[in-house]
Predict the structure of Peptidase A1 domain-containing protein.
Amino acid sequence: LTFSEGNATLKVSNLGFLHYALVTVGTPGHTFMVALDTGSDLFWLPCQCDGCTPPPSSAASAPASFYIPSLSSTSQSVPCNSDFCGLRKECSTTSSCPYKMVYVSADTSSSGFLVEDVLYLSTEDTHPQFLKAQIMFGCGEVQTGSFLDAAAPNGLFGLGVDMISVPSILAQKGLTSNSFSMCFGRDGIGRISFGDQGSSDQEETPLDINQKHPTYAITITGIVVGNNLMDLEVSTIFDTGTSFTYLADPAYTYITDGFHNQVQANRHAADSRIPFEYCYDLRLFYVTNKFYKNH
């Protein structure tokens, strides 16, 4: 299965480094361009709120701005006694279940309440068939941090391991196997499929699943900087919602010190506008009347 709007994933230059897909929810259906995030679990949409980022200026990029439950005949709130409600202590049994998701980026979060509605999907074969899957997602009333800088103007599609993620819900309902695949092309265009179990000839990397904090984690078994090899195992989260690679010590210090000791360039002075510790002044030179940078 894939989204009814198609299986394409895409990068949008004015929205940074994330990958997006078009999803349609509700009755009648409304389409949103959402960021794809394997580092979190909850799918949420901006929902009739004041504390949300405005949609992109291009109407074609964001066919709908906000999800409004009252305008969907199939929308219903998730009660506090639901198995999906993780904040039961913050609501009564007669009210909707609240949610709050906090992300890696500084002061970045989304909060609101949980709803159920239909997600439009399609089979991926010669004669596609369309179906509606009842799923749970967040009605995001307040967004903060990076979400106010157009990181996910129409919402975030969490693809994580937990049972609240859409891939997990589809598997629980018996609509797909408990797997999905995403491919990102060099031109920014890729694809996403639910229930895809890959091909028999593909190579695989085992995932390390921490039951207390379920994430897609892989083990790096060695690090090479230049000609120096360090036999060090590092567990890292595979996160499509994060633009850059982050490493903790000792791996971070080994890589940065090793690179700094071998690079033939002067280190750039500290600059509060640049979020990286190791930057270098590059030498400029001319070759055959063409301008080049050493890097």
